[in-house]
């Protein structure tokens, strides 16, 4: 029997004031999971921003690099889980699953179990994705999703405050070459010697027979995939959660 999970959906046509909160939406809902001892699934769109990871916080010239990203029209936020710099924009679709959790020993199994709905959703589209590491990709990690040997989604995890949050983004039509150049420039300006390989990343539209794929198709398949594992119950954000998200935005945003 599938466990019940709250379903929160932030569409591309959501009110601008809600889309602005997208960088902290998953964390906001994860806190609900901890408080209610319940699972939740989030599928969301966003306006462009850059998300950094804990290691990025220690870069020697981080302020200058953040100022440069801001000059490109990109606000910068710090993630609560692992990983490193990524660009999220309208050509991506973000997802998250949260569950009550206080056991750090289940970190590995959480990745496989909580993100399985993404793999099922992609399979419905005819995309054979699997967990793996795309060496040289930006935000490289062992539980990213790869297809044809290239990264198509980054996935990160946080366990804190009584919840586990597994979240990521699917690259639908984002240009992997341009994104890698942007993030490489960020690291150069931040004083890092990290070398990124743009050929390690691709978007769904570049996969065989996927040129015409749309965000609507991916969104529907992703929800279908998660519905194989959870009984999804629509439950939009409350006014209290919107206020919490506003507070988290102030905490998570980085300024030079």
List keywords for this structure.
256 residues; alpha+beta; eight-stranded mixed sheet; 8 helices
Could you explain the architecture of this structure?
This protein has eight helices and twelve strands. The protein is an alpha+beta fold. It has a single domain (4-254), classed as Bira Bifunctional Protein, Domain 2 (BirA Bifunctional Protein, domain 2). The strands form two sheets. The protein has an eight-stranded mixed sheet with strand order 7-8-9-10-6-2-1-11, sandwiched between helices. The protein has a four-stranded mixed sheet with strand order 5-3-4-12. Helix 2 packs across helix 8 (239-252). The longest helix has 15 residues, at 22-36. The model has no long low-confidence stretch (mean pLDDT 97).
N-to-C CA distance: 49 Å
- Biggest sheet, spatial arrangement of strands: 7-8-9-10-6-2-1-11
Q: What's the pLDDT, averaged over the residues?
A: 97
What's the Cα radius of gyration?
17 Å
Structural class: alpha+beta
**What is the assigned CATH homologous superfamily?**
Bira Bifunctional Protein, Domain 2
| Principal-axis shape | globular
CATH architecture: 2-Layer Sandwich
Low-confidence stretches: none
Series of secondary-structure elements, N-terminal to C-terminal: EHHEEHEEEHHEEEEHHEHE
Helix-residue proportion = 25-40%
- Name the beta content range: 25-35%
Overall domain count: 1
Number of strands: 12
Number of helices: 8
- The first-level CATH class is given as Alpha Beta
Largest β-sheet summary: 8 strands, mixed
CATH fold descriptor:
BirA Bifunctional Protein, domain 2
């Amino acid at each position: 029997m599938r466990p019940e999970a709250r379903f929160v959906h932030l569409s591309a046509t959501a009110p601008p004031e809600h889309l602005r909160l997208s960088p902290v939406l998953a964390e906001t809902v994860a806190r609900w999971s901890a408080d209610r001892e319940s699972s939740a699934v989030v599928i969301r769109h966003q306006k462009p921003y850059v998300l950094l990871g804990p290691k990025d916080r220690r870069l020697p010239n981080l302020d200058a690099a953040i100022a440069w990203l801001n000059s490109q029209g990109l606000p910068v936020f710090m993630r609560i889980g692992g990983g490193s710099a990524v660009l999220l924009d309208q050509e991506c679709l973000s997802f998250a699953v949260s569950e009550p959790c206080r056991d750090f020993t289940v970190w590995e199994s959480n990745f496989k179990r909580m993100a399985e709905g993404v793999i099922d959703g992609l399979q419905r589209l005819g995309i054979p994705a699997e967990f793996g590491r795309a060496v040289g990709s930006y935000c490289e990690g062992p539980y990213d999703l790869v297809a044809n040997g290239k990264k198509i989604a980054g996935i990160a995890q946080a366990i804190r405050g009584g919840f586990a949050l597994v979240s990521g983004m699917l690259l639908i039509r984002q240009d992997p070459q341009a994104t890698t150049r942007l993030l490489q420039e960020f690291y150069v300006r931040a004083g890092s010697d990290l070398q990124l390989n743009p050929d390690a990343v691709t978007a769904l539209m570049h996969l065989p027979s996927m040129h015409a794929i749309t965000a609507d198709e991916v969104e529907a398949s992703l929800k279908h995939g998660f519905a194989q594992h959870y009984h999804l119950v629509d439950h939009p954000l409350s006014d209290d959660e919107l206020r919490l998200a506003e507070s988290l935005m102030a905490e998570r945003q980085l300024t030079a």
